[in-house]
Amino acid sequence: MPVTNPAPVTVLGRGVRVGDRNRRRARSSTRTPSRPLGEARLISGVAFVVACGILGGMTATAVPRSDRVLVLAPRSTETDRQLATAAYRRGMRVERLTGWTAPAELHGLAAHVYAGPLFADAVAADLEVGFLEAPPGWLAELPYEFVGRRVEASTLAHAWTLRRPVFVKPPNDKSFAAKVYRDGTQLPGPDAADPDTEVLISEAVTFSCEFRLFVVDGEIRAASRYAVAGDLAVAPVEECAEGADALAFGAEVVAAEAGNLPSAIVVDVGLVEGFGWAVVEANAAWASGGYACDPDGVLEVVLRAGGPVAEVAGRDRRFVRPAPSVVR
């Protein structure tokens, strides 16, 4: 059955890879002189998903239309390609931008975004999206029984003074690498980061395995193992010997912390050597990799976590990411 295009599309031929080179070719053949300079162009949702289907052996079929649009960042990832396919199955329009400005044709639509924090900040105001995230100090406020280590919410300036190995990360951004630093002198200096940058500082522990849990309304909708002994080791949760225990511990944490987390969030948990199960961290669902999670379950959480700000429930409003002033 032919696909009904929800919007003008750039036709992609068999075997075409959705990438920068092909987007440049598409732009050269569909350029509109009246388009404002610097405005991002779109890769149409149907063209994008059909391309994924061709490459993956999927047969394209018509699906019911939705008034929702899933907006993706210019840089393609395995997770966002899976989410695009899942969204199309729901009848959603999918648009991958080729720049960091939301085109006028997307303004006013019921937009949902899956992307990194910097891109989210750039388009939040124009697309009127409310991005849910955990409070910066949430991990540090958990009881010891849930973390199994000392965790402190502080500033980068304080972390610079430390003279012992510590794990340091920004709570909700990726402004520098989250890892164990030999001491504070190894962190990005004042020439690269603001001294007032919020950070989480924790003692270094060893996780024998780590799992990612996508949660909405207190229920785990998708889960995957992503690491073993600190190394990437992706596997479906049902294929892991520790999978059932990871889900049980995650459910316990989510239930206990229901009032302290947004309704849609990612919680990573792991098995700490010499202690037991512990929370690794919380992450924004709209910016988290899905690993071997079920894409439909991930999408359900992402749509709530990064959707129209007007639809954010009252209990979630305090978890909306502050919108920065974007200079263009």
Structure explained in plain terms:
It contains nine helices and 15 strands. With 328 residues, it is α+β, with helices and mostly antiparallel strands. The strands form four sheets. A five-stranded antiparallel β-sheet has the order 12-11-10-13-14. It has a four-stranded mixed β-sheet with strand order 1-3-2-4. It has a four-stranded antiparallel β-sheet with strand order 6-9-7-8. Helix 2 crosses helix 3 and helix 3 packs across helix 9.
Mind sketching the topology for me?
Elements: H1 20-30, E1 42-43, H2 45-56, E2 68-72, H3 78-89, E3 93-97, E4 110-114, H4 117-127, E5 129-131, H5 138-141, H6 144-147, E6 151-155, H7 156-160, E7 166-169, E8 179-181, E9 198-203, E10 207-216, E11 219-228, E12 231-236, H8 243-256, E13 264-272, E14 276-283, H9 295-305, E15 306-308
Parallel strand pairs: 2-3, 2-4
Antiparallel strand pairs: 1-3, 5-15, 6-9, 7-8, 7-9, 10-11, 10-13, 11-12, 13-14
- As for the number of domains, it is 3
What does the main sheet amount to? Answer: 5 strands, antiparallel
Low-confidence stretches: 1-41, 46-63
Task: Note the beta-strand portion.
Answer: 25-35%
**Widest sheet, order of strands:** 12-11-10-13-14
Q: What is the arithmetic mean of pLDDT?
A: 83
Task: Classify the secondary structure makeup into a structural class.
Answer: alpha+beta
How would you describe the oligomerization state of the chains in this entry? single chain
Number of helices: 9
Shape: globular
Q: Helix-strand pattern, N to C?
A: HEHEHEEHEHHEHEEEEEEHEEHE
Number of strands: 15
Into which percent range does the helicity of residues fall?
Answer: 25-40%
**Termini, distance in Å?**
44 Å
Compute the CA-based radius of gyration. Answer: 21 Å
